[in-house]
Amino acid sequence: MTDSAVEQIRQANAKLRAVISETRNALAGCRTFSATDVRAIAEPVAALQPIVDGAEKLRLMHPELDAELETYKGNLEEIQVALEQMRVMLTVRRGQIAAARSHVATLGMWSATLRMTR
Q1: Cα 27 to chain center, whole Å?
Q2: Is residue 96 situated within a structural domain?
Q3: Positive or negative: CA dihedral 115, 96, 27, 8
Q4: Alpha carbon of 98 to those of 55, 91, 102, 111: distances in Å?
């Protein structure tokens, strides 16, 4: 159990680190962030849920899991921060798009008014 649990945690940590990196790239404007990225976060978290549910007992029985679980916890905290930053960025972008739409609508009205005066 311990070897497979350690391996599962390591795999989840590796996947989360990759997702964190991709999320940081999206925040920097180097790539897009999509539903695929959200699924990439959910998959390792869901896979480790049984281990996390029994983590307290597992840590007592197998202290070697402690470091891997702490790394997992750190990864989850980091992805939470990155997702919050992504949420803020998307909120700002939505505001920019709304302002641009308003600007286009105003230009349309000005254009229509100009055509009527000719």
Answers
A1: 10
A2: no
A3: negative
A4: 46, 11, 6, 20
**Structurally, how many domains does the chain consist of?**
1
Q: How far is CA 41 from CA 20, 57, 78, in A?
A: 9, 25, 12
- Contact call for residues 58 and 65 (beta carbons, < 8 A): yes
Q: What percent of the chain has pLDDT over 70?
A: 98
Reported confidence tier of residue 66, pLDDT bands at 50, 70, 90: confident
Q: What is the pLDDT of residue 2?
A: 62
Residue 54, φ and ψ in degrees, nearest 5: -105, 20
Residue 23 structural domain: 2-91
Position 60 scores a pLDDT of 84
Tell whether 102 is covered by a domain.
Answer: no
